[in-house]
Amino acid sequence: MRAIDVHVHPSTRGLDIHACSYFRRDLSEVPQTAEGFADLYLKQDVKALLIGWHPSTVNEGTHNSNEHVIDLVSNYPNSFAGVLASLDTNATDLQAVARYAEELVRNPKVVGFKFHPPDQGFYPSDKKFYHIWEVLEAGGKPAMFHVGFTVLGANTEGGSGIGLDYGRPIHLDTLARDFPRMKILAAHPGWPWVEEAIGVITHKKNVFVDTSGYLAEQLPEVFQKTIGSRLQDKALFGTDFPYVDLPKALASFDKMGFKDAVKEKLLSGNARNLFGLKADGSL
Predict the structure, then answer these.
(1) Which pairing describes strands 235-236 and 46-51: parallel, antiparallel, or unpaired?
(2) pLDDT number for residue 124
(3) Whether 191 contacts 149, CB under 8 Å
(4) Which end of the chain is more exposed for a tag (fewer CB within 10 A), N or C?
(5) Using one digit for the tens of pLDDT, what is the confidence trace for 162-199?
(6) Are the beta carbons of 81 and 73 closer than 8 angstroms?
(7) Is the Cβ–Cβ distance between 121 and 166 less than 8 Å?
(8) What architecture is domain 3-274?
């Protein structure tokens, strides 16, 4: 197995055309059938973790869902290693959301959870969500939180109502302090708060980070240096597929000159440890 991609949106549903344009992705290169999607990862010898969250900016077509990505993992186990499930933080009854989280925690195909605070409009450190975080902490399933800039609503009037402040990495510091046994994964380097993100990840043992949203050579320089040294045990390879091309992302990592032992950790070892996957990336 070449790598584990911990940050993958299914290209079968919820494809954000605006985000594709931002990343200059040619839609003809993006597989939009389940078979084509799975085949891409199989051919690259990469296992993917699939995200069940659906962006608020995509209103056309069938929405992405936890059920959809669970089905993909069930049908294509050689390509997809597990699911990062989504929860509705805007629901009126958050106790019901916590009960649903308990159900998902018991599902062996759900290896973690994914949240997008800027798009979902919430602060991870808000105590009204603490009962949900208690469930995730008790279940031992890592929680991924988007940090930093988002292409959702970028260059639109008022950012389409999306506020970047919800994605400040410092909010994960409070969460990690209050839930020391909760495994927290920051999605993306956190630009324009990269040093803030590095500070939180360095200080809190239970906070990790992925490399998604960038080719490796495009990562902020201080982030590149840090994941190759001090944070080599806490950084995980991620693409943000389909917005970042998988083959290009892999080729980019090959050019970075990381020591072999460090590269193995970044591409797969750290993901196996964090999500409890087997040596071949399977559940």
Answers:
(1) unpaired
(2) 98
(3) yes
(4) C
(5) 999 999 999 999 999 999 999 999 999 999 999 999 99
(6) yes
(7) yes
(8) Alpha-Beta Barrel (3.20)
